[in-house]
Fold this sequence. Notes:
The structure holds 3 protein chains of 3 kinds.
Chain A: H1 3-18, E1 22-27, H2 30-34, H3 37-50, E2 57-62, E3 74-78, E4 84-86, H4 91-102, E5 113-114, H5 119-122, H6 140-145, H7 150-158, H8 161-171, H9 183-192, E6 199-204, H10 213-220, H11 222-236, E7 240-245, H12 250-265, E8 281-286, H13 296-303, E9 327-331, H14 332-344, H15 346-350, E10 360-367, E11 373-378, H16 383-390, E12 400-405, E13 411-414, H17 424-429, E14 438-443, H18 448-462, H19 468-486, H20 491-507, H21 511-515, H22 518-526, H23 528-537, H24 555-572
Parallel strand pairs in A: 1-2, 6-7, 6-9, 7-8, 10-14
Antiparallel strand pairs in A: 1-3, 3-4, 4-5, 10-11, 12-13, 12-14
Chain B: E1 3-8, E2 11-16, H1 21-27, E3 51-54, E4 61-62, E5 73-75, H2 79-95, H3 110-117, E6 134-135, E7 141-144, H4 153-162, E8 167-170, E9 177-180, H5 197-201, E10 207-209, H6 222-231
Parallel strand pairs in B: 1-5
Antiparallel strand pairs in B: 1-2, 3-4, 3-5, 6-7, 7-10, 8-9
Chain C: H1 2-8, H2 12-18, H3 22-32, H4 40-51, H5 56-66, H6 70-79, E1 91-96, H7 99-103, H8 106-117, E2 130-135, E3 147-149, E4 152-154, H9 159-171, H10 177-189
Parallel strand pairs in C: 1-2
Antiparallel strand pairs in C: 1-3, 3-4
Helix pairs in contact in C: 3-4, 4-5, 5-6, 8-9
Amino acid sequence: MNRPELQAMGERERERQQSYRCRLLCCASTPCLSSGATAVIEALKQFVKEQELDADVLVTATGCMGPCSRGPLVTVQTRDLEDVVYEHVTPELARDIALAHAAPEPRALERNLLAADSPFFAKQKKVVLSNSGLIDPERLECYVARGGYGALANALREMTPVEVCEAITRSGLRGRGGAGYPTGLKWDLVRKAPGTRKFVIANGDEGDPGAYMDRTLMESDPHRVLEGMAIAGYAVGAEQGYIYVRGEYPIAAKRLENAIRMAERRGLLGGRVLDSSFSFRIDIRIGAGAFVCGEETALMASVMGRRGQPSPRPPYPAQSGLWGMPTLINNVETFGNIAPIIDNGAEWYAAIGTDKSKGTKIFALAGTVATTGLIEVPMGISLREIIFDIGGGIPNGRAFKAAQTGGPSGGCIPAEHLDTPVDYDSLRRLGSIMGSGGLVVMDDTSCMPDVAKFFMEFCMDESCGKCVPCRVGTVQLHRLLEHITNGSATPRDMETLEELCVMMQETSLCGLGQSAPNPLLSTLRYFREEYQAHILERTCPAGKCTMDHVPPLEQGAELQRRSRSTTSDSEVS
Amino acid sequence: MSVVTLHINDELVSARSDQKLLEVIREQGIDIPTLCHLEGVSDLGGCRLCLVEVQGSSKLLAACVTPVQEGMSVYTHSERLVRYRRMILELLLSERTHTCAVCVTNGHCELQYEAAELGVDHVRYEYLAPQLHLDASHARFTLDHNRCILCQRCVRVCDEVEGAHTLDIMGRGANGRVITGLNRPWGECVSCTSCGKCVQVCPTGALFFKGSSVGEMEKRHAFLSWILNGRERKEWQW
Amino acid sequence: MSIANKQKNPPAKVEEVRTDPRYKLVDRTLKRFHYQQDALIEVLHTAQEAFGFLDDDLMIYIARALKLPQSWVYGVATFYHFFSLEPQGEHTCVVCMGTACYVKRAAEIIATVQDEFGIAPGETTADGKLSLATARCLGSCGLAPVMVIDNQVLGKETPDTAITQLREVIATPAATAATSAATTVEPQEGPQP
């Protein structure tokens, strides 16, 4: 396929879509599927068949629309009406919706409507997710109809690899995996690295609990990731790419596999991409459940079929990665940003966001917040806007306590910092990180030492065991937190705890160990009085911890106290 | 091979550009502790005892895996580094059961030696003391997991020098264990050549010759440089 | 070395395991990756899917096919959570312990299931009916707390609903992972020589 053929394909698909009077888009992403979207899609298809509306009504299973807690979601596009979104759709309601919209005089139902101008949608800016929820992820034509693979065609024809790298650098895009390394710089390093073979890897091993941005992107718009990777391959001189998909995401893997096959068949991937001299193949590698494989050197070990243990850097993957060849590793979401940058220009992209953090970021909003789901916001938006405007605030009349960003490598941000703009550097200053984009909101029933213990247990289980500070340090920190939350800690334990945290940050081999103390340190920084209440007063302010132990040295006194109280009880009785 | 110059503890020294920092530091007669490093096999960078401060780097770097660079300025014994080294040893001592008084390598143990050198006289952390088994199924050697510090010297020497790869690590994190074959009794492993290299390079009493009593197990790994010089550096001309 | 190996490991055993049709699935993956050693994780995935768990014979078979040391295969298989070396129960219940589920008190669900069936996460009941496991995050945080019974994702659970659903599932007989894999093998056997 060449460029005019690609454009013709998009044109044909657009015409096909416009020939329908009404399009019913039903979200078929994992959260909606588990709340019953399959039955809804079946009901709609059944309805169309019964009413013989095949030529007028199109039912499409799409990717994620955003407000996952309100699923199953159905978007209706009618020729003369505004697009409307229905929430909590049941098969019965689906028939009603179809009936109302497919009628000769289409109208919207009054029930279960999710207003398009609600803050949930109004405050978002969709760049990476611009197709998500609007296209059928299983059909290449749908992606092409929305301008897909145009950026790749453009880059191959109009730009040299150097120019592509320059464009990415000028756009100010930073890695979306968490650390925020400038993407353009990384590409340039791999491009300049000497080597006969080079590789591109998309990191889709989204291990942070509470984060599912990468999965949604891979499920909802797989071709966008592939296109980003192909452009990267052209820019750095690689002919082989790998997508490392987390083992827990079978649907994402299936859709990617399908997408790769379709793109190869049409000549958009594989040998001689779009009739140019550039060839690029992509293979999928399925992870097998190891958080540490999100670390780039561990991920490469896993791609090569080994134990996913990180190795010391330098050498960096850009010099010596897969099989010792220069390798470019970027997050899936980073690759999702590439096509819009090439399409709209670096300057357009650089105008979004803040001075140092450009563009948009996808967050998975979860926890105790009214509407949970997937959102894409411009960098620099405040946490307050995300939680209270987009998320609709804390339900059940409870008070906001903290927002956890960055998963087990991040930290908890308290209410007094709600107005901080969300960007790489501000979050780092607060002792947290942007991370891959998990944002878990906690209300006042959460106990912070308990939350810290939860994350430490995670890191303890996920530590690969290669270096001593992380392998033993996480176990010891977990023990200390257990003492704090069961009431047997002493003030001395606090000192040990803090000293061990700093030591782990400085001495661990990889990012997992270096950042494992972050949740603990950030809760210590903002909620120290809670730790002190646990240790000095032996009470849990949130009422979550059992506090049924006593410090070893006080056990004698405790026994005496108990025996005295039982004797005094018996005297009374 | 070009020569680079760098500062180690404010002393100007020169080194070959393909050298690692650890080698250069030791050439200067500076004593720097290591446990996972072993001359003759590849480096792991896992014990973190050889961490050094390099000016201009925000992170501490493990000297065994860091290549030398022109103009580097390295500090090997700052107050912070010594404190961290002590803490790492404390962590190692707390991880399994290291009761020197009844150990076959008492007096010849590298872990014990480094702890004494750094003045670790007590451990502030809780002893985890998991009850692990002891594999005495091999005719000549015994593997006691309770003394293992997971330095992987045995794994690397078995793979890289002997070429058998009978040993590996299973599991992860604190649950990691050295395994023989398919985690079967060592005596049943057909790939093991019973060469004993793993026993000789083990820094603690985790691997020892059968029949050794307390303090009797002395290890020697001079054979490694003999093999390495002969094989890799082509000293063997016959 | 190869001669010694052959003598010590009589080929009869290899022949014997090959008769199991599920090995064909493993063979197919091995072929697809041209017996390359870096495909070990992919091969283990297929093996686990076909057999439900990885036993020693299976790992020895894979190690031989890829010419990898047995300890290497075992080390990789135990490094990753996904691979199980023990047979799984007839039904599996996975409770998500991601942050969002944790904040919404998934721990209470686990505790209740644990009390009810007397198994801790990672264990199987004595009658082989139910395996309980925890997951790091299933990525359905909008529906927290989430649990998965026999690959069906269930959201917004409470300890009570969890127990009711589990009792229902256990009461109805279902195909085990291994037999369901075996049944999917059979139709695919045709084109194989």
